[in-house]
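Example 5.3 — DUF362 domain-containing protein
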Amino acid sequence: MTYHGSMTTSVAIARIQEYESTLLDSATALLLEEIGFTPSPGERILVKPNLVSGTNARHCCSNGLVVKAACAYLLDCGAHVTVADSPGYGPASQVARKAGLTEPLGKLGLSVQTLKRATPLELTGGGTIGISQDALEADRILNIPKLKVHCQMTMSGAVKNLFGCVVGFRKAVAHNRLGHSHDVFRSMLMDVYEALPHASHLMDAIHPLHKDGPINGEPYELGMLTASSSGIAIDTAAYHILGLQPDQIPLWQEAISRDMDGATAESIRYPLEQPELFTHDGFILSEERPLDFHIMRILKGRVRSLLKYFKK
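Solution (predicted structure tokens):
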């Protein structure tokens, strides 16, 4: 399903300075209610954090307290909640432990699962990629990206985080096979996003990653938590707040070329806090690096996964 046109799209923003803020739970509930994300009792919700890597995980992954706050709200609504991701290397539970999700989610009776069961998705540029049937079959998805710089795509937000619904090593293979062209790669990312129209988005931009990304960067004190029913709009809002332009960000260019709602800053409505409240002084982008994954890293990752499987 594709959403085209020039409709006004809402992005709800709350100002939260620290993850330990006593306002985090109530702000999360307010944001999700504002965008109409109020699941019915028994509704199956897939919560999809960013669990990109166990390296520098406390800074490059979605914060555990944000994920916990979202899950607590969903459980209060009576939803059936599954928290899952598909890191390129290693099980999601291992990355979640290093990122600090395991303990807070355990207090809610939840654990982090690995997305599996790949099913082919036809790509507009030709070929297919294996997207998780777990994600496709959920009643709704709550996507919880970590806002951060990205050495290949300039920024990583809601749209890029849904690439984590591609199963396991297939992401690395896609990077290696399609990484010769920003145009091809950004089209693939947008195809994955559009295959999941039942997703809404809660962006962790309290301490986004800057200087280097998507893994080896440093936290930047932005103090922002945002939500939207549109991944395009929530990303556009974040780019705008950070003073960025479409020609700097391949995925933003792709959204504009597809005439997607929320792709222009002027089309976004802010029902709560306003963008002018936030400053981006000292926010530093990552140096650009090639798109492809090294083939030996892919092979080593597959060997590690197979060894863990046969040890069960």
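Remark. The first strand starts at residue 9 and ends at 10.
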